[in-house]
Amino acid sequence: MSESLPISLYLVPTPIGNLKDITLRALEILQSVDVILAEDTRTTGMLLKHLEISNSLQSYHIFNEHKAVEKLVERMRRGEVFALVSDAGTPAISDPGFLLVREVIAAGLAVQSLPGPTAFVPALVNSGLPNDRFVFEGFLPHKKGRKTRIDSLVDEPRTMVFYESPHRLIKTLEQLAEAFGADRQACVSRELTKIHEENVRGTLEELIAYYETNPLKGEIVLTVAGKPERKESREEKQEKRSKKYRD
Ligand code: SAM
To answer: Per the database record, which ranges form the Tetrapyrrole methylase domain (predicted)?
Structure first.
């Protein structure tokens, strides 16, 4: 269905490290909405100060998400306009937001996400792995369901993108090497857009060896090649051709 209603909720991406990564439209929206909903009002407060924007902030995080949604939708019905931001990157991408978007749509109100910073896009592109098709896996479950999730990806042919914390990276690389094979190509993108940005490419085995001697700090995205398509052998091609002539 087409939407010609005025927007009630904007999702506004904010920088993932480099404070210059904010769009002109993001600045305009953050300045003009009635209220900015923030995952952490202190973090967003500092960003707004840097951007010289003063506007009212209200807390919206994973712990109050369910409770807050109903009240917010009611305020939108009465005409208030909100912007949702997370601590960094695009709201609702491995961050709170999905629930609010869903309920605002269900209430027949209009939502718009601005394009802007997010960690998985530069990581995927920097990896040099095929990106015509890919899967975004976000964070793997820490305990329950972790192995099941990894096993479900064993035959995945598309490039896979994971968010991961630095202290869990080696364990994840080891588990993926066990499931996918140690020779699978991958890339660890660290501190994207920041001064110490680094993209380390290699097989899973090479990355394990690298990070065992180079302790890891900062935020990371792990990109892993999909399962290589099996090439047809000459015999199989020949067999196919002769079958075509026989049929
Ligand atoms: N909403 C964010 C987005 O759009 O990318 C993601 C938020 S999620 C809570 C945080 C994770 O994103 C980090 O653990 C890391 O995996 C990834 N991340 C965020 N900023 C990053 C950066 N500058 N460099 C590498 N990874 C980053």
So the answer is: 9-207
At residue 215's C-alpha, the angle toward residues 210 and 217, to 5°, is 120
Report the predicted TM-score, pTM, of the whole model to 2 decimal places: 0.92
> How far, in Å, is the centroid of ligand 1 from the Cα of 197?
13
Look up the CATH number of the domain holding residue 106: 3.40.1010.10
Same domain, 90 and 106: yes
Sole residue written with tokens 């999702």: 11
The alpha carbon of 164 and the centre of ligand 1 are apart by a number of angstroms equal to 8
Range of the domain at 88: 7-113
Backbone φ, ψ for residue 83 (5° rounding): -120, 135
Q: Output the ligand 1 site: residues, CB below 6 A.
A: 16-17, 86, 88-90, 93-95, 118-120, 163-165, 189, 191-194, 219-221
pLDDT digit of tens for each residue in the chain (247 aa)? 555 899 999 999 999 999 999 999 999 999 999 999 999 999 999 999 999 999 999 999 878 888 899 999 999 999 999 999 999 999 999 999 999 999 999 999 999 999 999 999 999 999 999 999 999 999 999 989 999 999 999 999 999 999 999 999 999 999 999 999 999 999 999 999 999 999 999 999 999 999 999 988 899 999 999 999 877 777 777 777 777 766 6
